C-alpha cells in the first residue's frame, strides 16, 4: 500500500512526515512525501521556494510532478536539504512546486493521486499556523501553508488534515489552537523519533526539532528564530490532532483568497493584502543584508564567552532551551557557520546537548 503525505510548509514538515508515517503506518506501507523545496536562507541563499528548474537529476513521476532522489542536486547558488533527505529516508520525496499558484498545486496533487492511488492522504502541518486567520500579530509564514491548504480542499480526493506539535512554530499560541483541534491521533514518543533521529543531527528545522525534543521529554521554554520567539515545550508538544479540512479553510482567509491563483506572484500579492506582508519579501530583504555580511572566524574562546553572556541573559527571561539556528544568530555568526558552532558546543559542553536542542538550564 502507498500512503501520500503532503508536508504543508515544506522544510521540517517533510521530516515530521517521515516520523508520522513510521508511527502510524509502520514499515510495511510505502510513503510518498510531497514537499516544497523551501529552506531557510542558511541552507538556500535564494529567497522563496525552488522549482523543478532549480535542480538537476530529478525523476518524472507525472506530467507536472518530479521526484527528488538522492543524486539530485540544486543548481548553484540554490541550496536544498531534499537530496540529502532522500538519501537518508526510505520514502519517495516528490517536489511540490508553487510557481503556478494554488491551481498548479491542485493539478500536481490530482496527478499524483491518479498515479499512486494512495490508501490514504494526510496533509501535515507542524505548529498549526495553517489554521491562522491571517491577522495574528505573531504570524510569520502563512503563504506556504495557505497554498497547500487551498489546493488540498480543491483536490478531488479525501484528505485528512493533521496538526503536529500545536504552537511549536511560535506563530499561533497553543491556547488559541486548542479549541480548534479535533481527535487526538497520536502522541509521539522517544521511540517514534528514532525514525528521524539521525536527520535531526543536521537538519536545521526548529519546529520539528522541538516536536522531537518534546517526544523525548524536554519541557520548558525554547527560544527560536532570529526574533527570539519563546515557545513552550509542554505535554501538548508531541501530540498530533486531526482538524476538519473545511473548518480550516473557512478560518484561513488567505487560503480562500488564493484558490484560483495561477502564479506564485499572484498568491504573494494576496498575502501582502490580507496578512500585511509576504514571507518571501522578508527573505528578500534578509538575503540582501546577509549578502554583505561574510563569515567571521569562529574562535572557540570568544564563542564560548559570548555563549555564557547569551545564556545568562536568556535565563533571566525564563528560557530553558534554544535551537542551534537561534544560537548562531544570537552570537552574530553567519548561518553557514551553524554546523561548525553546533560541533563546538556539543564537544565543549556535552551535558547541555538535549538532542536536538541546546539546554540553557543544564
Keyword list:
single chain; five-stranded mixed sheet; 362 residues; alpha/beta; globular
- Radius of gyration, whole Å: 19 Å
- The chain-level mean pLDDT equals 95
- Termini separation (Å)? 45 Å
The SSE order reads: EHEEEEEHEHEHEHEHHEEEHHHHHEHHEE
Unreliable residue runs? none
Largest sheet: 7 strands, mixed
| Overall form | globular
Estimated structural class: alpha/beta
Instruction: Please work out how many helical segments DSSP would assign.
Output: 14
Strand content: 15-25%
Count of individual beta strands: 16
Strand order of the largest sheet: 7-2-1-8-9-13-10
In short:
The protein is α/β, with parallel strands linked by helices and 362 residues long. The protein has helices at residues 12-25, 82-88, 101-116, 143-154, 174-177, 190-193, 207-215, 245-251, 253-257, 264-275, 279-291, 300-316, 324-330, 338-348; strands at 2-7, 30-36, 55-56, 59-60, 66-67, 73-74, 92-96, 120-126, 160-164, 184-187, 220-224, 229-233, 239-243, 321-322, 353-354, 357-359. The chain contains 14 helices and 16 strands.
Question: In words, what does this structure look like?
Answer:
The protein has 362 residues and is α/β, with parallel strands linked by helices. Helices cover 38% and strands 18% of the residues. Helix 3 (101-116) packs across helix 4. The longest helix is centred in the last third of the chain and has 17 residues, at 300-316.
Q: Mind sketching the topology for me?
A:
Layout: E1 2-7, H1 12-25, E2 30-36, E3 55-56, E4 59-60, E5 66-67, E6 73-74, H2 82-88, E7 92-96, H3 101-116, E8 120-126, H4 143-154, E9 160-164, H5 174-177, E10 184-187, H6 190-193, H7 207-215, E11 220-224, E12 229-233, E13 239-243, H8 245-251, H9 253-257, H10 264-275, H11 279-291, H12 300-316, E14 321-322, H13 324-330, H14 338-348, E15 353-354, E16 357-359
Parallel strand pairs: 1-2, 1-8, 2-7, 8-9, 11-14
Antiparallel strand pairs: 3-6, 4-5, 9-13, 10-13, 11-12, 14-16, 15-16
Amino acid at each position: 500500500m502507498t500512503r501520500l503525505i503532503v508536508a504543508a510548509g515544506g522544510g521540517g514538515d517533510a521530516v515530521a512526515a517521515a516520523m508520522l508515517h513510521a508511527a502510524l503506518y509502520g514499515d510495511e506501507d510505502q510513503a510518498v512525501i510531497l514537499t516544497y523545496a523551501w529552506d531557510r536562507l542558511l541552507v538556500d541563499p535564494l529567497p522563496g521556494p525552488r522549482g523543478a528548474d532549480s535542480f538537476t537529476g530529478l525523476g518524472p513521476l507525472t506530467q507536472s510532478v518530479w521526484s527528488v532522489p538522492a543524486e539530485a542536486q540544486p543548481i548553484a547558488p540554490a541550496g536544498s536539504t531534499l537530496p540529502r533527505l532522500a538519501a537518508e529516508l526510505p520514502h519517495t520525496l516528490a517536489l511540490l512546486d508553487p510557481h503556478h499558484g494554488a491551481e498548479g498545486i491542485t493539478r500536481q496533487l490530482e496527478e499524483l493521486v491518479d498515479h499512486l492511488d494512495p490508501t490514504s492522504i494526510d496533509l501535515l502541518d507542524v505548529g498549526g499556523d495553517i489554521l491562522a486567520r491571517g491577522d495574528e500579530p505573531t504570524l510569520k509564514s502563512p503563504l506556504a501553508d495557505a497554498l497547500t491548504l487551498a489546493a488540498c480542499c480543491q483536490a478531488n480526493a479525501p484528505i485528512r488534515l493533521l496538526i503536529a506539535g500545536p504552537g511549536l512554530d511560535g506563530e499561533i499560541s497553543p491556547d488559541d489552537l486548542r479549541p480548534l483541534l479535533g481527535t487526538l491521533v497520536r502522541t509521539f514518543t522517544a521511540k517514534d523519533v528514532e525514525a528521524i533521529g539521525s536527520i535531526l543531527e543536521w537538519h536545521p528545522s526548529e519546529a520539528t526539532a522541538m516536536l522531537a525534543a518534546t517526544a523525548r521529554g524536554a519541557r520548558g521554554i525554547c527560544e527560536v528564530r532570529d526574533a527570539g520567539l519563546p515557545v513552550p515545550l509542554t505535554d501538548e508538544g508531541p501530540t498530533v490532532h486531526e482538524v476538519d479540512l473545511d473548518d480550516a479553510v473557512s478560518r484561513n482567509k488567505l487560503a480562500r483568497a488564493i484558490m484560483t491563483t495561477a502564479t506564485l506572484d499572484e498568491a504573494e500579492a494576496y498575502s501582502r493584502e490580507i496578512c500585511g506582508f509576504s514571507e518571501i519579501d522578508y527573505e528578500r530583504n534578509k538575503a540582501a543584508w546577509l549578502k554583505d555580511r561574510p563569515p567571521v572566524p569562529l574562535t572557540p574562546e570568544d564563542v564560548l564567552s559570548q555563549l555564557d553572556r547569551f545564556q545568562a541573559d536568556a535565563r533571566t527571561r525564563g528560557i530553558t532551551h534554544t535551537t542551534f539556528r537561534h544560537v548562531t544568530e544570537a552570537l552574530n555568526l553567519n548561518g553557514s557557520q551553524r554546523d561548525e558552532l553546533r560541533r563546538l558546543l556539543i564537544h565543549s559542553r556535552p551535558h547541555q546537548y538535549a538532542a536536538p536542542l541546546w539546554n540553557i538550564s543544564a
